[in-house]
Amino acid sequence: MPFSKVNDVRLYYEDYRGKNQIPLIFIHGSSWKGKACSTWKPIVDHFRGERRTIAFDLRGHGQSDKPKGQYAIEQFSEDLFSLMKNLEVKKAIMIGYSMGGMIALRFVLDHQEMVDRLILISTKHRRLSLFGRLFLPLWLSFAMRKYYLPANSPPKHVLKSEVYACAKFDVTSELPKIMMPTLIIHGSEETGLTDLHVSQAKYMKEHIPNAELTILEGSKHSHVYDTPEKTREAIEKFLDK
Questions:
Q1: What is the pLDDT of residue 200?
Q2: Residue 75 has what pLDDT?
Q3: CA–CA separation, 68 vs 213, rounded Å?
């Protein structure tokens, strides 16, 4: 199994070579259901051979190391930077889903020269609403006891830390700095405590200079693995331009 030592952890990754020299890097979300980089399997399988594809498990997830301590979006972003250096990737097309989209946003703002195009899927640019922040501890306690968390999910200390990291994530004022072509994909039915209403996607489309928006009608947050063909088609159309 391939691992790469980055900063203080080993990250598991899958790197499939292809004809196109600009790789696609897939960044998964918080894997409450234990999927980690396997979230992307149906989409990665489609592009394998045609394009170089790289998917990896974030620290704390899947087969990567899971140290104690705080988990932050900035830390995930710098892990990605080190992984790209180790794999000798100078520039890539970033594809981030949910929390992975936040990581992609932070990465492109810090390392814009390393991103050819950006694809943001079901993610957000602003901190959780005041109501959400007040209600978050209660929801998190209930969620940890009642649902998700299969055997291969991240440890509870990882999930708790990254939930708070996502809650305070905010790059609203920095969106106009993102200059590369950007695709935003969002399900029309995404709502709830995570504050992923489609208004987030529309705001990003209006404030990222070279952005376009694809709304998947009738799709909820889980569309990446429930109906991956819809997501794949939107990605492929964008890449073929």
A1: 92
A2: 97
A3: 38
Amino acid at 208: I
Q: pLDDT, tens digit, for every residue of 84-126?
A: 999 999 999 999 999 999 999 999 999 999 999 999 999 999 9
Question: Structure pTM?
Answer: 0.94
What is the edge-to-edge ordering of all strands in the sheet holding 211-216? 3-6, 9-16, 49-56, 18-27, 92-97, 115-121, 182-187, 211-216
How many Cβ atoms are within 10 Å of 150's Cβ, its own excluded? 10
Positive or negative torsion for Cα 197, 108, 238, 234: negative
Domain 3-239, second-level architecture: 3-Layer(aba) Sandwich (3.40)
Q: What is the pLDDT of residues 144-191, one digit of tens each?
A: 766 556 667 888 899 889 999 999 999 999 999 999 999 999 999 987
Positions of E strands within the chain = 3-6, 9-16, 18-27, 49-56, 92-97, 115-121, 182-187, 211-216
**Residue 58: which residues within 8 A CB-CB, separation 6 or more?**
11, 27, 28, 36, 64, 76, 79, 100, 103
What are the φ and ψ backbone dihedral angles of 108, each rounded to 5 degrees? -65, -35
Cα–Cα distance for residue pair 42/227, rounded to 1 Å: 10
Q: Where are the domains of the chain?
A: 3-239
Cβ-based neighbours of 73, under 8 Å, separated by 6 or more: 99, 102, 103, 106, 165, 166, 169
